[in-house]
Amino acid sequence: MAGLRYDEIEAGQRFTSAGRTPTETDHALFMMLVGDWHAIHADEEYARRTAAGRRLMHASLGLSLAMGLQAQAMAFADPMIGAIGLTDWRFRTPMFIGDTVHVEIEILRKRITSDRARYIVERTLRLARHDGVVLQDGTAAVMLRLPPGAGTASLPSDHAPPPGAQR
Questions:
Q1: pLDDT attached to residue 146
Q2: Where is the MaoC-like domain (predicted)?
Q3: How many CB atoms sit inside 10 A of residue 157's CB?
C-alpha cells in the first residue's frame, strides 16, 4: 500500500480496514501478556452469571486491534516520529470472542508544528463489529517528519518560516 504524503492528507478523508475475527487463542495470549485473568475474561461459569452472559474480551485488546488495523488501512509516506496520544477513547459495548471487527478512520485535521520540521495528524478511530455496531472509538494523533518545502503554500502571510527555509 502506498502511503499518503503531507500534501495528500485532508480533513474528512475516510478509510476502512479489513475485518479481523479475534479467536480464543488471541484472547488467551492477551491475558498471558498483560497478566489480567479476571473472571469476567477467564471463567466461563462466572461470566454466565453476569449481564453479558459470557466472557468479555479485554477492552484493551480491542484498542490494540484498532491500532493495528488502522495501520493496515492507511499508511503515511512521510517518516513517522511516533504516536503522541489517544484522547476521549470510549469503550461503548463489549467485544466477544468470535466478533469480526474492523476499523473506520476519519482524518480530523493536520497541523505543522512550530519548528516547521514536523506535522501532526489527528484522526478518529472507530472499532466496529461486522454489523456496524461501534465497540470503541476515540481520537489518535501521530507526529510525522515534514518533507522539505511541504506545506509552505498554506502559511498565513504573517507567519514567517524559520531562517533558511524557502517559502
A1: 96
A2: 16-116
A3: 6
φ/ψ (deg, to 5) at 144: -130, 160
106 compared with 155, residue with greater pLDDT = 106
Sheet of 14-16: strands edge to edge? 14-16, 101-112, 118-129, 134-145, 80-91
Residue type, 80: M
Q: Which residue type, as a one-letter code, is found at position 52?
A: A
Which CATH superfamily includes the segment(s) 6-148?
A: Hotdog Thioesterase (3.10.129.10)
The Cα–Cα gap between 155 and 148 comes to 14
CA–CA gap between residue 57 and residue 18 (Å, rounded): 20
Residues 90, 17 contacting (CB under 8 angstroms): no
What pTM did the predictor assign? 0.86
Is residue 33 within 8 A of residue 41, CB to CB? The reply is: no
- pLDDT at residue 104 above 70? yes
pLDDT at position 80 over 70: yes
